[in-house]
Amino acid sequence: MATPAFDSTVLTRRGVLAAAAGSLLLAGCGPQGQRPDAGGNSSAPGDQNLVVGASLELSGRGAALAVAQRRALEIAAETLNRSGIPVGNLMRSVRLEIRDNGSDLEVAARHAAEMTRAGAHALVGGVLGDTATALAAAAQRLKTPFLALGFSDRIVLPLSDRTFSFKLTPDATDMARRMVDLLESQRVRRVVLLAEDGPHGDSGVRALKDALDRSGVDLARTVRLPGGGQSFRAAAERAVAADPDGVVVWATAPDSGTAARELRRAGHRGALFFDAGAVVDDTLRGANAKAVEGAYAVHPACLGGSALTATSGALVARRDFDYRYTQKHGSSVGFAPYAADALQLLAAAARKATSLDRGRLRAFLQTQMTEGIAGGYAFTADRHGGMEADSLGVYQVSQGGWARYA
Known about the structure:
Blueprint: H1 13-25, E1 50-56, H2 63-81, E2 85-87, E3 90-92, E4 94-100, H3 105-117, E5 122-125, H4 129-142, E6 146-148, E7 165-170, H5 172-185, E8 190-195, H6 199-213, E9 218-224, H7 233-241, E10 246-250, H8 255-265, E11 271-274, H9 288-292, E12 296-300, H10 313-329, H11 338-353, H12 358-365, E13 369-371, E14 376-378, E15 385-387, E16 392-398, E17 401-404
Pfam family, one: Peripla_BP_6
Family: Belongs to the leucine-binding protein family.
Protein name: ABC transporter substrate-binding protein
């Protein structure tokens, strides 16, 4: 499936985002004047930091995603603190408070309350759908802005109950539409959906069914993966028994890789398709490697280059971030560094709000329209997530790596 070439002469929504990118991604290059030190301590009287509380799944089933997001947060904070964030007449720095929620939604919700009481101006975290949803509910009660890194439309819906939450990951509807285009291009006529337990899987089931209803692809069966660490074998066998041409695995890592292994063991020799939650190194490693070779994934286009012009501020920032990540950790974080964008969005909101007041931060977050490191965002009062649809690309696993397909 081919994608249209980027035409810099046409004014598109994506082009507007790219043009606005410099004000967000280069926010660390603030005006000269009072500057914080690199360690995050403001030189202004008192505690003048922008305090960001992060509840991440650094252990448990979300660790494959959360460890990279913690690193992204730390690199973004270092970048911002090189020159500081101009907020009113002061230069502020970022101070991160990072906690491990152990992939437990109740612990995540408790973290939200504890960090807000301790002075956090905003919250970031929740790489899993259920922990992110729990954090969103807590943030609403606390009236604290929350930027979610997890996959589930319920994180920001219904909007009347989520006015303080913003989601950086792609919407299920956008991923499903791109997935169905891919299925049709591969001449898949009969597909099974294997969806994880929980809110991310729920969103995927709704979105993919709607998208398939408008296509020539038949949904032969929907099978839900069991939660609580149970074996996926029976679910995989049910999926394969429907005799599909292809199987869509709608699950975050490490469940996506495990599901792929069980599907191959159950006899599926057809194509595999993943949503963006699968795209981490863990999916390609060890026992997963043979099972996922040749599989496709819909994921933000930051994974394999950019459609942005070479001179854009967004591309410069994206390359700088990738270089810093590689220097520190020995490998690239090609899969979307949502946490870095979350911190930059907060910094931009604080600068525009001329305040660290939580209510004002929320108000200015919902005016952000920009191209981030992971992709494009356009938050409004009526839309708090997620990434712009045209930020998505298609990738294929080739020789143990993610290669751009379309």
